[in-house]
């Protein structure tokens, strides 16, 4: 029983990262989310029918592999929609000249602007005076 209970956290430590990396590489996050949802449901339906230990272990493993990435996928899609909505609303409201001024003011200073200052060491690029 302990082995069956340890499968879910063990797989959850690895599977979401592999699934999201695969989704990023193929750029098919929504489709992978849909397939993972259906396959997790199918694995959950197999679980009550698993009468032997090996079958129960395989069903729990399949459930863990397909269920653990669902929350990271949902979060990624939600934040993607919010980001897209925010960018589209801001681009329509902020005039182009002000937008470029704000981008310049908020960007990090260039290396030449930091040469010889104490901020250069703080930024991780110590110059000869502070080395």
Structural account:
- The protein is an all-alpha fold and 131 residues long.
- The chain has one domain (2-96).
- Helices cover 76% and strands 0% of the residues.
- It has helices at residues 2-12, 15-26, 29-46, 53-67, 70-93, 96-106, 111-114, 118-122.
- The longest helix is centred in the middle third of the chain and has 24 residues, at 70-93.
- The radius of gyration is 24 Å and the shape is elongated.
- The model is unreliable at 119-123 and 127-131 (pLDDT under 50).
Distance between the termini: 59 Å
How many structural domains in the coordinates?
A: 1
User: What sort of overall outline do the alpha carbons produce when their principal axes are compared?
Assistant: elongated
Overall SS class: mainly alpha
Quick one: how many beta strands? 0
Proportion of strand residues: under 5%
Largest sheet data: none
| SSE pattern | HHHHHHHH
What fraction, in percent, of the residue positions are helical?
over 70%
Number of helices: 8
Task: Pick out the low-confidence regions.
Answer: 119-123, 127-131
Rg = 24 Å
Report the average pLDDT across residues: 75
């Amino acid at each position: 029983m302990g082995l069956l209970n340890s499968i879910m956290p063990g797989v959850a430590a690895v599977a979401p990262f592999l699934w999201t990396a695969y989704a990023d590489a193929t750029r098919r996050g929504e489709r992978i989310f849909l397939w993972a949802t259906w396959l997790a449901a199918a694995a959950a339906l197999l679980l009550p029918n698993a009468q032997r230990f090996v079958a129960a272990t395989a069903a729990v493993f399949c459930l863990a592999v397909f269920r653990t990435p669902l929350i990271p996928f949902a979060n990624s899609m939600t934040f993607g929609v919010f980001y897209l909505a925010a960018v589209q609303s801001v681009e329509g409201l902020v005039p182009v000249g002000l937008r470029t001024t704000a981008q310049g003011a908020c960007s990090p200073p260039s290396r030449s602007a930091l040469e010889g200052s104490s901020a250069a060491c703080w930024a991780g690029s110590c110059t000869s005076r502070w080395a």
